[in-house]
# Entry
Amino acid sequence: MPSRIQSQARPDSLLINMGPSHPAMHGAVRIMLELDGERILNSEIEVGYLHRGFEKTCENRTYFNLLIYTDRLNYVSPLINNVGYVMTVEKLLGLSIPERAQYIRVLMSELSRISDHLTCLAAMAMECGAFTVFLYKMKAREFLWDVIEATTGARMTTSYIRIGGVRADLHADYEAAVQKGLAETRKVLKDVHGLLDKNKIFLNRTRDIGVMTPENAVNYGWTGPALRSTGIAYDVRKAHPYLTYDRLNFEIPTGERGDNFDRYMVRMREMDQSLRIVEQCLAKIPKAKTGLMADGLEPAEAIRAARTQKPDRPVKLSPNLEGSEKAVTKDILADDRRVTIPPKEETYTSIEGLISHFKYFMKGHGIRPPKGEAYLSVEGGNGELGYYIVSDGTDRPYRLHLRAPCLPLLAAIEELIKGRMVADVIPTFGSMNIILGELDR
Amino acid sequence: MQGNFITTRLNAMLGWGRKYSLFHYPFVTACCGMEYMSAACAHFDIDRFGAGWTRFSPRQSDLLLVVGTISQKQAPVLRTVYDQMTEPKWVIAFGACAVSGGIYDNYAVVQGVDQVIPVDIFIPGCPPQPEMVLDGLIKLQDKIQKTKQDWRWKKQRS
# Structure
């Protein structure tokens, strides 16, 4: 079947494909361009090359198990996806979580947001030919990921934010690691400002290209940095504060013209604000009990000891459970047995703990929110990331819908590149930060 | 006797040349692309192993990195890209989705790219750590060194 652009093309114009396998198309977007020489007359975007059946898959997974799929939606900032999903389920359950866990969530969200913006701008700069910027930004991202890896145990797909709190407490010397990450990121941001802000080549490719008016942006349903670049200061963190954002001090940077350069600039300044938020989190985060156990019982010994009486010494856990010891559970997980996994010490040493562990993971049991529906949105890396969950009272969602911020952004690209040159497609597309994982789902 | 001797040495030399000058084409579709970027950048530096040169054209590359989920819609594109590459060529399936479909066992996802194209090295992980990527690359280099090299002018003479 010929596409719209094929059937409507002028006979003398040239039709070319950009993508789906094109370095600037982030893997899997196809843009068909109708060209008159170098000028774009019309374009048509085709999506769906990364459709992985996320929403349908979620209907067949328990609330606990589908968490891993949310990691892989916006894979540049997986922790924000976790936060969004988990908070929607908590809204369904009517659950409140400890303050320390809230601060940890904010901290992780902001670290993810910085790495999201770093990756987006790195790719955008690289596609414009600024390879040095790409290398610098990737370097900064590595330092932030070191923090995330040390706390969550994984670099990207962490599944760290759990229903009721977080999986484990922050690692022992997280403050030093975070400070190092922040210092390195600040250095890189300063370098990048110096490399790009007044760079003639970069300005020529981004200034007054891909201009969006505020009215049109709202009509398309834009959110996030792209909307703020047009001058509208809408941020979910300020408009509908969640977690502890109302207790933290930060500004919402906005642009003036809504062009590619403004989108770049808004992202750069937003990273500064995120760095500020992280620092405030470090200062304000409530102190927790230390959960590190040096002289505990080995799990096998504990099981043997528990056959006769309850062991008096704590159980030593395997290193990959570090941070989720019983002593710290109260600070990082809600005190509600219906929705949280019991501490491993109890599972190993008491029959009640074992039963509640099995009840949690058994089919048909586990987390069963009451009948109803809930929508909740968080500020993702590139806009309002919303989850809509319908529950029918079982342990699986009846329906789960994701409001991906990328889709409205991508929809507007056809209009933004109309009448421009072919080369303008690349910075316009790059400055939007189109993430296929959440767009095609 | 003499001819055989020269052929084996030439074989080793060609293998050595080929394994340390892999121009790769990253067919990046999904999450694994982030780890591919990490592996390619300064911290892990894939360039140390002679595979630093990323070519975004299949015509200029020897190594196809299938990075990320290949959906049913994407599979024909991948096949086209593979067919456009010139011999000799190698393929690495990067990440659980490319290896076996990973956690996406459903209607939309190809259950392993070896259903579409031949694969030399499988790197598991969701996503694999950059160290694993480098390990996979070294394994591919071993494989290239050990195989009998094929070259056009040899074929024409024999």
Notes: The beta strands of chain B are 24-28, 63-67, 90-94, 121-123.
